[in-house]
Design goal:
The chain is α/β, with parallel strands linked by helices. The protein contains nine helices and eight strands. The structure holds adenosine-5'-diphosphate and cytidine-5'-diphosphate (CDP). Its EC number is 2.7.4.25.
């Protein structure tokens, strides 16, 4: 069994996926963390983030491992944990460029498809491209202002700056962010976190 939860930036995908996964007693899988890890490593190596061959060579020589847990995903490169560095502003700024590279998307997709079921998978294209045969599909939305206000509680930046950055990323991510035709679209604006989790669990039951 695979449940997919896709949606725009900061729509609640990882928090909701974690809640749903814990209720179901399965892990959740954060695909965005793999795009973020590729970006962090590219930045650290001073690579041009548009340069797919160089990035793929780097990722091939320094393998990245995603640890999908119900409570929160962790990312490792050999013995080094990358998790805490993946939500920095510089990774936020570069990640959509890296995620637009077909070679990097294939690198992420191969890792996700090798994971043992069952799990909840969250990202942009889990229900469309990576797991089109998932048993249940959801797509989270909310206005850019609401998403920015939520994220401002986690980051040392003001709401207008976060909102502008989210809108820029939404635009750059448009190609891979279409909801699956068979996904239930949930506007999380009027709901609290538990409300979104309960909406999904009700549908699953
Ligand atoms: P994403 O994985 O889509 O980037 P997150 O799960 O990180 O989103 O959520 C962004 C922030 O918004 C987190 O602080 C989270 O707790 C909060 N949040 C998510 N959904 C809701 C909601 N429905 N109501 C209020 N806050 C929410
Ligand atoms: O939720 P938020 O957008 O803040 O972060 P994320 O889910 O970790 O995704 C980070 C970035 O990775 C996105 O902006 C996309 O560029 C990319 N991504 C993607 O292209 N496809 C996915 N399935 C997941 C993430």
């Amino acid at each position: 069994m695979i449940v997919t939860i896709d949606g725009v930036a900061a729509s609640g995908k990882s928090s909701v996926s974690s809640g749903v996964a814990q209720a179901l007693g399965v892990p959740y899988v954060s695909s965005g963390l793999l795009y973020r890890a590729a970006t962090l490593l590219g930045l650290e190596a001073n690579l041009d983030l548009h340069d797919a061959p160089q990035l793929l060579t780097l990722l091939g020589t320094r393998p990245v491992h995603l640890e999908p847990l119900a409570g929160g995903n962790r990312v490792w490169q050999a013995g080094r944990e990358l998790t805490d560095e993946l939500h920095s502003t510089r990774v936020d700024r570069g990640v959509s460029v890296v995620a637009a590279l077909p070679e990097v998307r294939a690198w992420v997709d191969a890792q996700l498809r090798a994971l043992p079921e069952p799990f909840v998978a969250e990202g942009r294209d889990m229900g469309t491209n990576v797991f089109p045969h998932a048993s249940h599909k959801f797509y989270l939305t909310a206005s850019a202002r609401i998403r920015a206000e939520r994220r401002a509680r986690e980051r040392p930046e003001d709401v207008p700056a976060i909102e502008a950055a989210l809108q820029r990323r939404d635009e750059l991510d448009t190609v891979q962010s279409a909801p699956a035709p068979d996904a239930l679209v949930i506007d999380t604006g009027p709901l609290d976190l538990q409300g979104v989790i309960d909406t999904i669990l009700t549908r699953l039951r």
